[in-house]
Amino acid sequence: MIGWHFLQTPGIASTRPTTWIAIMNFLDGHLYPENQQPLIITAAPYAPGWIPSDFPEDIPVTMEEQIQKAVDCYEAGATVLHLHVREPDGRGSKRLSMFNELIAGVRARVPEMIIQVGGSISFAPESDGQAAKWLSDDTRHMLAELDPKPDQVTVTVNTTQMNVTEHAGEDDFKGVSRGFPHLYATYKDMIVPSNPSWAEEHIRRLTAAGIQSEFQCYNINSFETIERMIRRGVYKGPLVMNWVAISGGMDQANIYNLANFLRAAPDGAVITVESSVLNVLPVNMIGIALGLHVRCGIEDVLWNQTRTGKMSSVEQIKQLVRISGEFGRPIATAAQAREIMKIGVFYDTAEETLQANGFAPNRNGGNQGFLRKPT
Predict the structure, then answer these.
(1) Alpha carbons 292 and 285: distance in angstroms, whole number
(2) pTM for this predicted structure
(3) Span 328-353, pLDDT tens digits
(4) b or e along 72-85 (b: 16 or more beta carbons within 10 Å of the residue's beta carbon)?
(5) Out of 45, 154, 268, 310, which residue is the most buried by the measure of CB atoms under 10 Å away?
(6) What is the number of alpha carbons within 13 Å of residue 30 lying toward its C-beta?
(7) If you write DSSP's letter for every residue of 273-299 in order, what string do you get?
(8) Nearest one of 139, 129, 153 to 193, comparing CA atoms
(9) CB 286 within 8 A of CB 260
(10) Alpha carbons 216 and 208: distance in angstroms, whole number
(11) Dist CA 371 CA 50 (whole Å)
(12) Contact 157, 194 (CB under 8 A)
Protein backbone atom coordinates (compact mmCIF):
# COMPACT_ATOMS: atom_id res chain seq x y z
CA MET A 1 0.00 0.00 0.00
CA ILE A 2 2.17 2.92 1.21
CA GLY A 3 5.95 2.69 1.27
CA TRP A 4 7.22 0.10 -1.18
CA HIS A 5 10.39 -1.95 -1.52
CA PHE A 6 11.35 -2.61 -5.13
CA LEU A 7 12.79 -6.00 -6.03
CA GLN A 8 14.60 -6.54 -9.31
CA THR A 9 13.14 -9.43 -11.24
CA PRO A 10 15.96 -11.97 -11.76
CA GLY A 11 17.36 -12.07 -15.27
CA ILE A 12 15.62 -8.89 -16.42
CA ALA A 13 17.63 -5.76 -16.97
CA SER A 14 15.54 -2.76 -16.04
CA THR A 15 15.97 0.69 -14.56
CA ARG A 16 12.74 0.14 -12.67
CA PRO A 17 12.07 -3.27 -11.08
CA THR A 18 8.84 -5.03 -11.90
CA THR A 19 7.98 -6.58 -8.54
CA TRP A 20 6.51 -4.51 -5.72
CA ILE A 21 6.45 -5.83 -2.16
CA ALA A 22 4.78 -3.87 0.62
CA ILE A 23 6.91 -3.38 3.70
CA MET A 24 5.39 -0.69 5.93
CA ASN A 25 2.97 2.20 5.93
CA PHE A 26 4.20 5.80 6.02
CA LEU A 27 7.92 5.43 6.54
CA ASP A 28 10.23 8.37 5.88
CA GLY A 29 10.27 8.86 2.14
CA HIS A 30 6.83 7.37 1.55
CA LEU A 31 5.86 10.47 -0.45
CA TYR A 32 8.82 10.07 -2.79
CA PRO A 33 7.75 8.65 -6.17
CA GLU A 34 10.61 6.14 -6.20
CA ASN A 35 9.04 4.54 -3.12
CA GLN A 36 5.56 4.29 -4.63
CA GLN A 37 3.94 1.96 -7.09
CA PRO A 38 3.27 3.22 -10.61
CA LEU A 39 -0.18 4.80 -10.69
CA ILE A 40 -3.12 2.64 -11.76
CA ILE A 41 -5.93 4.70 -13.30
CA THR A 42 -9.41 3.18 -13.40
CA ALA A 43 -11.67 4.70 -16.05
CA ALA A 44 -15.44 4.79 -15.54
CA PRO A 45 -16.68 6.11 -18.89
CA TYR A 46 -20.08 4.41 -19.29
CA ALA A 47 -22.04 6.44 -16.74
CA PRO A 48 -25.20 4.40 -16.09
CA GLY A 49 -26.51 7.13 -13.82
CA TRP A 50 -26.70 9.65 -16.67
CA ILE A 51 -28.67 9.66 -19.91
CA PRO A 52 -27.03 10.23 -23.32
CA SER A 53 -28.40 13.76 -23.68
CA ASP A 54 -26.51 14.78 -20.52
CA PHE A 55 -23.22 14.62 -22.45
CA PRO A 56 -23.88 13.38 -26.00
CA GLU A 57 -20.31 14.13 -27.07
CA ASP A 58 -18.92 11.58 -24.61
CA ILE A 59 -21.56 9.05 -23.52
CA PRO A 60 -21.19 6.07 -25.88
CA VAL A 61 -24.40 4.38 -27.00
CA THR A 62 -23.78 1.94 -29.86
CA MET A 63 -21.73 -1.17 -29.17
CA GLU A 64 -18.94 0.08 -31.43
CA GLU A 65 -18.88 3.41 -29.60
CA GLN A 66 -18.67 1.61 -26.26
CA ILE A 67 -15.79 -0.57 -27.45
CA GLN A 68 -13.98 2.44 -28.91
CA LYS A 69 -14.41 4.31 -25.63
CA ALA A 70 -12.45 1.56 -23.88
CA VAL A 71 -9.69 1.87 -26.48
CA ASP A 72 -9.57 5.64 -26.08
CA CYS A 73 -9.35 5.39 -22.28
CA TYR A 74 -6.57 2.81 -22.51
CA GLU A 75 -4.56 4.89 -24.96
CA ALA A 76 -4.95 7.92 -22.67
CA GLY A 77 -3.41 6.03 -19.73
CA ALA A 78 -6.14 4.03 -17.96
CA THR A 79 -5.32 0.36 -17.41
CA VAL A 80 -8.55 -0.62 -15.59
CA LEU A 81 -11.97 -0.29 -17.25
CA HIS A 82 -15.01 -0.05 -14.98
CA LEU A 83 -17.58 -1.55 -17.31
CA HIS A 84 -21.31 -1.05 -17.70
CA VAL A 85 -23.30 -1.40 -20.93
CA ARG A 86 -26.01 0.56 -22.74
CA GLU A 87 -28.81 -0.70 -24.90
CA PRO A 88 -29.14 0.75 -28.43
CA ASP A 89 -31.80 3.15 -27.10
CA GLY A 90 -29.27 4.56 -24.66
CA ARG A 91 -30.68 3.08 -21.46
CA GLY A 92 -28.45 1.15 -19.11
CA SER A 93 -28.50 -2.51 -20.10
CA LYS A 94 -29.49 -5.19 -17.63
CA ARG A 95 -28.91 -8.01 -20.15
CA LEU A 96 -25.83 -10.11 -19.48
CA SER A 97 -25.64 -10.97 -23.17
CA MET A 98 -24.83 -7.31 -23.80
CA PHE A 99 -22.07 -7.49 -21.19
CA ASN A 100 -20.65 -10.56 -22.93
CA GLU A 101 -20.65 -8.71 -26.24
CA LEU A 102 -18.91 -5.63 -24.86
CA ILE A 103 -16.31 -7.65 -22.93
CA ALA A 104 -15.52 -9.66 -26.06
CA GLY A 105 -15.17 -6.47 -28.09
CA VAL A 106 -12.86 -4.83 -25.56
CA ARG A 107 -10.77 -8.01 -25.23
CA ALA A 108 -10.28 -8.07 -29.01
CA ARG A 109 -9.17 -4.43 -29.23
CA VAL A 110 -7.24 -3.90 -25.96
CA PRO A 111 -6.52 -7.40 -24.59
CA GLU A 112 -4.13 -6.11 -21.90
CA MET A 113 -6.70 -3.84 -20.23
CA ILE A 114 -8.11 -5.03 -16.89
CA ILE A 115 -11.88 -5.38 -17.23
CA GLN A 116 -13.79 -4.61 -14.04
CA VAL A 117 -17.54 -5.17 -14.31
CA GLY A 118 -19.74 -2.96 -12.14
CA GLY A 119 -21.49 -5.25 -9.69
CA SER A 120 -24.80 -3.38 -9.83
CA ILE A 121 -25.06 -4.35 -13.54
CA SER A 122 -27.10 -1.16 -13.96
CA PHE A 123 -28.97 0.76 -11.31
CA ALA A 124 -30.54 3.21 -13.77
CA PRO A 125 -34.37 3.30 -13.92
CA GLU A 126 -35.67 0.98 -16.64
CA SER A 127 -38.26 3.50 -17.80
CA ASP A 128 -39.62 6.90 -16.88
CA GLY A 129 -41.16 6.92 -13.44
CA GLN A 130 -39.42 3.76 -12.23
CA ALA A 131 -36.98 3.58 -9.35
CA ALA A 132 -33.20 3.59 -9.49
CA LYS A 133 -32.27 0.27 -7.90
CA TRP A 134 -29.75 -2.53 -8.00
CA LEU A 135 -30.81 -5.81 -9.58
CA SER A 136 -31.90 -8.90 -7.67
CA ASP A 137 -29.49 -11.11 -5.75
CA ASP A 138 -29.87 -14.00 -8.19
CA THR A 139 -29.31 -11.77 -11.22
CA ARG A 140 -26.12 -10.30 -9.78
CA HIS A 141 -24.86 -13.80 -8.99
CA MET A 142 -24.94 -14.44 -12.74
CA LEU A 143 -21.99 -12.09 -13.19
CA ALA A 144 -19.86 -15.10 -12.28
CA GLU A 145 -21.10 -16.72 -15.51
CA LEU A 146 -20.06 -13.95 -17.92
CA ASP A 147 -18.29 -15.24 -21.03
CA PRO A 148 -15.67 -14.01 -21.76
CA LYS A 149 -15.07 -13.62 -18.05
CA PRO A 150 -13.89 -10.24 -16.74
CA ASP A 151 -10.82 -9.84 -14.56
CA GLN A 152 -12.77 -8.29 -11.70
CA VAL A 153 -16.33 -7.72 -10.51
CA THR A 154 -16.95 -5.00 -7.94
CA VAL A 155 -18.40 -6.40 -4.72
CA THR A 156 -20.29 -4.38 -2.15
CA VAL A 157 -20.29 -5.50 1.47
CA ASN A 158 -23.07 -4.60 3.93
CA THR A 159 -26.39 -3.16 2.76
CA THR A 160 -26.30 0.63 2.86
CA GLN A 161 -27.86 3.79 1.55
CA MET A 162 -26.44 5.04 -1.75
CA ASN A 163 -27.77 8.57 -1.92
CA VAL A 164 -25.65 9.90 -4.78
CA THR A 165 -27.20 13.36 -4.44
CA GLU A 166 -26.30 14.14 -0.83
CA HIS A 167 -22.97 15.95 -1.08
CA ALA A 168 -23.66 17.46 -4.50
CA GLY A 169 -24.57 21.09 -4.98
CA GLU A 170 -27.40 22.41 -7.12
CA ASP A 171 -24.95 23.42 -9.84
CA ASP A 172 -23.67 19.84 -10.15
CA PHE A 173 -27.04 18.74 -11.55
CA LYS A 174 -28.14 21.93 -13.29
CA GLY A 175 -29.22 21.24 -16.87
CA VAL A 176 -28.71 17.45 -16.65
CA SER A 177 -31.06 14.56 -15.96
CA ARG A 178 -30.24 14.11 -12.30
CA GLY A 179 -31.71 17.54 -11.75
CA PHE A 180 -35.10 16.31 -12.99
CA PRO A 181 -37.33 16.04 -9.88
CA HIS A 182 -38.38 12.40 -10.42
CA LEU A 183 -34.80 11.21 -11.12
CA TYR A 184 -33.34 13.27 -8.29
CA ALA A 185 -35.83 11.69 -5.89
CA THR A 186 -35.18 8.11 -6.94
CA TYR A 187 -31.38 8.45 -6.86
CA LYS A 188 -31.69 10.08 -3.44
CA ASP A 189 -33.45 6.99 -2.08
CA MET A 190 -31.28 4.33 -3.77
CA ILE A 191 -30.04 1.46 -1.58
CA VAL A 192 -27.16 -0.98 -2.14
CA PRO A 193 -28.40 -4.48 -1.21
CA SER A 194 -25.60 -6.65 0.15
CA ASN A 195 -26.72 -8.92 2.95
CA PRO A 196 -24.13 -11.27 4.49
CA SER A 197 -25.47 -14.49 2.97
CA TRP A 198 -25.59 -12.92 -0.50
CA ALA A 199 -22.12 -11.37 -0.29
CA GLU A 200 -20.49 -14.60 0.90
CA GLU A 201 -22.13 -16.67 -1.83
CA HIS A 202 -21.30 -14.08 -4.47
CA ILE A 203 -17.63 -14.06 -3.48
CA ARG A 204 -17.49 -17.86 -3.59
CA ARG A 205 -19.02 -17.93 -7.08
CA LEU A 206 -16.67 -15.27 -8.42
CA THR A 207 -13.65 -17.07 -6.97
CA ALA A 208 -14.76 -20.40 -8.42
CA ALA A 209 -14.98 -18.69 -11.84
CA GLY A 210 -11.48 -17.23 -11.47
CA ILE A 211 -12.78 -13.65 -11.17
CA GLN A 212 -11.25 -11.31 -8.60
CA SER A 213 -13.60 -9.67 -6.09
CA GLU A 214 -12.85 -5.93 -6.20
CA PHE A 215 -14.31 -4.67 -2.94
CA GLN A 216 -16.19 -1.40 -2.71
CA CYS A 217 -15.58 -0.06 0.80
CA TYR A 218 -18.01 2.64 1.79
CA ASN A 219 -16.58 3.17 5.27
CA ILE A 220 -14.57 1.38 7.93
CA ASN A 221 -17.30 -1.18 8.69
CA SER A 222 -17.20 -2.40 5.08
CA PHE A 223 -13.50 -3.10 5.49
CA GLU A 224 -13.96 -4.76 8.87
CA THR A 225 -16.52 -7.17 7.43
CA ILE A 226 -14.15 -8.04 4.57
CA GLU A 227 -11.36 -8.74 7.06
CA ARG A 228 -13.66 -11.06 9.00
CA MET A 229 -14.55 -12.92 5.80
CA ILE A 230 -10.85 -13.36 5.06
CA ARG A 231 -10.17 -14.62 8.59
CA ARG A 232 -13.00 -17.13 8.27
CA GLY A 233 -11.90 -18.37 4.87
CA VAL A 234 -14.80 -16.95 2.84
CA TYR A 235 -12.50 -14.88 0.62
CA LYS A 236 -9.07 -16.20 -0.29
CA GLY A 237 -7.44 -13.75 -2.67
CA PRO A 238 -5.59 -10.43 -2.93
CA LEU A 239 -7.23 -7.54 -1.09
CA VAL A 240 -8.07 -5.03 -3.81
CA MET A 241 -10.42 -2.24 -2.70
CA ASN A 242 -11.96 1.09 -3.61
CA TRP A 243 -12.47 3.64 -0.86
CA VAL A 244 -15.81 5.07 -2.05
CA ALA A 245 -16.29 8.58 -0.66
CA ILE A 246 -19.59 9.74 -2.09
CA SER A 247 -21.49 10.43 1.19
CA GLY A 248 -25.19 9.55 1.43
CA GLY A 249 -24.60 6.44 3.57
CA MET A 250 -20.92 6.21 2.65
CA ASP A 251 -17.84 8.10 3.76
CA GLN A 252 -17.67 11.83 3.25
CA ALA A 253 -14.74 12.84 1.07
CA ASN A 254 -12.34 14.15 3.69
CA ILE A 255 -8.83 13.36 4.84
CA TYR A 256 -9.95 12.16 8.28
CA ASN A 257 -12.13 9.39 6.88
CA LEU A 258 -9.42 8.37 4.42
CA ALA A 259 -6.74 8.33 7.12
CA ASN A 260 -8.95 6.22 9.37
CA PHE A 261 -9.47 3.76 6.53
CA LEU A 262 -5.77 3.60 5.70
CA ARG A 263 -4.79 3.00 9.32
CA ALA A 264 -6.91 -0.15 9.30
CA ALA A 265 -5.83 -1.49 5.90
CA PRO A 266 -2.96 -4.01 5.82
CA ASP A 267 0.30 -3.35 4.03
CA GLY A 268 -0.54 -5.66 1.14
CA ALA A 269 -3.84 -4.04 0.19
CA VAL A 270 -4.25 -2.28 -3.15
CA ILE A 271 -6.45 0.79 -2.65
CA THR A 272 -8.09 3.01 -5.24
CA VAL A 273 -9.74 6.26 -4.14
CA GLU A 274 -13.12 7.14 -5.59
CA SER A 275 -15.50 10.06 -5.12
CA SER A 276 -18.11 12.03 -7.04
CA VAL A 277 -18.93 15.47 -8.45
CA LEU A 278 -16.19 18.07 -7.88
CA ASN A 279 -14.61 15.95 -5.12
CA VAL A 280 -13.20 13.56 -7.74
CA LEU A 281 -10.12 15.56 -8.75
CA PRO A 282 -8.96 16.67 -5.26
CA VAL A 283 -9.50 13.16 -3.83
CA ASN A 284 -7.50 11.74 -6.73
CA MET A 285 -4.70 14.26 -6.14
CA ILE A 286 -4.52 13.12 -2.51
CA GLY A 287 -4.43 9.52 -3.72
CA ILE A 288 -1.62 10.23 -6.16
CA ALA A 289 0.43 11.98 -3.48
CA LEU A 290 -0.04 9.17 -0.96
CA GLY A 291 0.88 6.37 -3.36
CA LEU A 292 -2.68 5.07 -3.74
CA HIS A 293 -4.48 4.53 -7.04
CA VAL A 294 -7.24 6.58 -8.68
CA ARG A 295 -10.51 6.43 -10.55
CA CYS A 296 -12.08 9.00 -12.86
CA GLY A 297 -14.62 9.29 -15.64
CA ILE A 298 -18.03 10.70 -16.37
CA GLU A 299 -19.75 8.08 -14.21
CA ASP A 300 -18.34 10.07 -11.28
CA VAL A 301 -18.27 13.66 -12.54
CA LEU A 302 -19.38 15.50 -15.68
CA TRP A 303 -17.92 18.95 -15.03
CA ASN A 304 -14.50 20.56 -14.88
CA GLN A 305 -13.54 22.13 -11.55
CA THR A 306 -14.98 25.54 -12.40
CA ARG A 307 -18.18 24.12 -13.93
CA THR A 308 -17.49 26.17 -17.03
CA GLY A 309 -17.78 23.07 -19.18
CA LYS A 310 -18.03 19.30 -19.19
CA MET A 311 -14.93 17.15 -19.18
CA SER A 312 -14.79 13.85 -21.05
CA SER A 313 -13.48 10.65 -19.51
CA VAL A 314 -10.40 10.77 -21.74
CA GLU A 315 -9.74 14.39 -20.73
CA GLN A 316 -9.99 13.40 -17.07
CA ILE A 317 -7.52 10.54 -17.59
CA LYS A 318 -5.05 12.82 -19.38
CA GLN A 319 -5.36 15.35 -16.55
CA LEU A 320 -4.38 12.68 -13.98
CA VAL A 321 -1.52 11.48 -16.18
CA ARG A 322 -0.21 15.05 -16.30
CA ILE A 323 -0.63 15.64 -12.55
CA SER A 324 1.02 12.32 -11.70
CA GLY A 325 3.89 13.31 -13.96
CA GLU A 326 4.28 16.55 -12.01
CA PHE A 327 4.55 14.44 -8.86
CA GLY A 328 7.20 12.35 -10.62
CA ARG A 329 5.06 9.23 -10.38
CA PRO A 330 4.88 7.11 -13.55
CA ILE A 331 1.68 5.59 -14.91
CA ALA A 332 1.38 1.82 -14.59
CA THR A 333 1.48 -0.22 -17.76
CA ALA A 334 -1.19 -2.87 -18.12
CA ALA A 335 1.36 -5.56 -17.21
CA GLN A 336 2.38 -3.63 -14.09
CA ALA A 337 -1.26 -3.08 -13.10
CA ARG A 338 -1.98 -6.79 -13.41
CA GLU A 339 1.04 -7.60 -11.25
CA ILE A 340 0.17 -5.00 -8.60
CA MET A 341 -3.48 -6.12 -8.41
CA LYS A 342 -2.46 -9.79 -8.63
CA ILE A 343 -5.05 -10.55 -11.28
CA GLY A 344 -5.73 -14.30 -11.41
CA VAL A 345 -4.11 -15.00 -8.02
CA PHE A 346 -6.00 -16.94 -5.34
CA TYR A 347 -4.88 -18.62 -2.13
CA ASP A 348 -5.61 -22.00 -0.59
CA THR A 349 -6.19 -21.13 3.06
CA ALA A 350 -7.22 -18.28 5.31
CA GLU A 351 -3.75 -18.25 6.85
CA GLU A 352 -2.06 -17.88 3.46
CA THR A 353 -4.49 -15.10 2.53
CA LEU A 354 -3.83 -13.21 5.74
CA GLN A 355 -0.06 -13.45 5.30
CA ALA A 356 -0.12 -12.47 1.61
CA ASN A 357 -2.21 -9.38 2.34
CA GLY A 358 -0.19 -8.26 5.34
CA PHE A 359 -2.71 -9.00 8.09
CA ALA A 360 -1.76 -10.34 11.49
CA PRO A 361 -2.43 -14.09 11.66
CA ASN A 362 -5.46 -15.62 13.33
CA ARG A 363 -4.97 -16.45 16.99
CA ASN A 364 -3.61 -19.90 17.65
CA GLY A 365 -6.44 -21.78 19.26
CA GLY A 366 -8.80 -18.86 18.88
CA ASN A 367 -12.25 -19.57 17.48
CA GLN A 368 -12.61 -17.01 14.71
CA GLY A 369 -15.89 -18.47 13.49
CA PHE A 370 -17.96 -18.30 16.65
CA LEU A 371 -20.61 -16.20 14.93
CA ARG A 372 -21.06 -18.78 12.19
CA LYS A 373 -23.77 -21.31 13.06
CA PRO A 374 -23.44 -24.95 12.02
CA THR A 375 -25.49 -25.81 8.95
Answers:
(1) 10
(2) 0.89
(3) 999 999 999 999 999 999 999 999 99
(4) bbbebbbbbbbbbb
(5) 45
(6) 15
(7) EEE-GGGHHHHHHHHHHHT-EEEESTT
(8) 139
(9) no
(10) 20
(11) 41
(12) yes
